[in-house]
Amino acid sequence: MKFEVSGGGAQIWDKDVLGLALYEGFSEEDLSPLPPDSAKIVWLEVSRGNFKAKKGSSLVVPLAGERPQCVVLAGLGKKEEVRADNYRLAAFTAARAAANRKASSVSIVMTDAAGHEIKHDREISRCVAGGVVLAGYRFEKYRSPDEDDNFKPVETADVPGADPGALEEGRIISAGQCWARDLANEPGNVINPETFEREARKTAEDYGLEITVFHAPELERKGMNALLSVGRGSATPPRLIHLTYRPKAESRGTVALVGKGITFDSGGLSIKPADSMVTMKGDKTGACVVLAAVKVAAELKLPLTVHAITGVAENMPGGGAYRPDDIIRAYNGKTIEVNNTDAEGRLTLADALAYASELAPDALIDIATLTGACAVALGDTTAGLFTNDDSLGDEFLEAAKRSGERFWRLPMDDENLRKKIKSPAADVINSAGRYGGAITAAMFLENFVKKGQPWIHLDIAATDFAKEAYSYYSKGATAFGMNSIIGFILKRAGE
Ligand code: BES
Ligand code: MN
Ligand code: ZN
What we know:
Helices cover about 35% and strands about 20% of the residues. By secondary structure, the protein is α/β, with parallel strands linked by helices.
């Protein structure tokens, strides 16, 4: 798809669908970008009380002429409370309405309370482009077309007043989100540790990234027994994948991203009940997000070094499977007693985090569909954040706020709770019961991050997967966290 930046005025009437984003309390004057006859019809609909411009709301008004065939009003919410993300949702709403009627072009106009076009800054332009790209996203490659379904992503979007460079950045970022969603949506019979490696290698080749992959013999030599153990029950052996983007010229620092990459989580011998196993193809979302993030960093040519690291494994109850009671020595030398093979993510992360710590990045961020307990605590539209560094945590939460992804910080300073991950037989135990399960998981991980290393742990369990479409998320994988990570990286790169 392509973006245009027309001069506005009558040029915006020449697209199939005309999207107009409005703040609450808008007046008839704010409809002035519409062709005069249409403005009357649309205002009549508005006067009937059908649209108040609440955030996320919309009104589609079909018109008689050929172009535009309809106007889509999209709500930005209250002007005083507006965030850049509201523009993304408004653009999504307009472009999704267009896509739902097989319209191939859309214009997206924003007006303020006086009927003037809103001046775009780079962030708004990025968001608008992102919204349009996300509006074209659905995962349906394995599904025959539905006769009654008119969905077709738009081909052209005109965004008068936008910054063309920022539109392109927004397109790259959201195309990366869609790519991560696609990969996460692939089922376990398509993506396993071997095929995930293939994707990573192809990405490295296409975007000029460095790549190192450790297969089982190498993992054995290095003593990455935690990752190895989790993979033992599967027919496809695990591997550790490390990609690096290095800017050609100046680098303003180093960020290491670690993603949980369980291509399918059956629970292993501590097997999950049938209903809990459904959606566990999504247990590789963290890995998909970090792979997409390093790809986007390269595409944007950011002046920042970015590492993406993932221990990829399939958690299965095969004959070679690791067992409850096993004691494992992780890469950093610490020993782990296993009391639940379904607490596998923290084991793969243990080795990956210890490995990433060796790079001594300015910031180390892991992202993982780690605990059902996090979803119980925060619901399935807010993810958990844990950190050993308050200022790094605040910096990330600020980026998350701007990205529109909800994160909430959970504490790691409860020493009584920390006792629960003690083991009589080893340095730590991998599961510590239901109470505070997201926190004890984070405390477990902390054992494998080098002391003094600024670190953030993101628990995206359940936010990774939308049971039904909401906001600009389609049903299925959301790539939750990717947008915040990109926002964080952009800031670190000085953008
Ligand atoms: N992948 C799951 C966590 C999960 C749950 C992700 C729901 C997405 C939605 C993780 O590996 C797991 O099984 N965690 C256990 C930990 C427990 C055994 C300590 C859990 O949450 O029950
Ligand atoms: Mn599990
Ligand atoms: Zn898991």
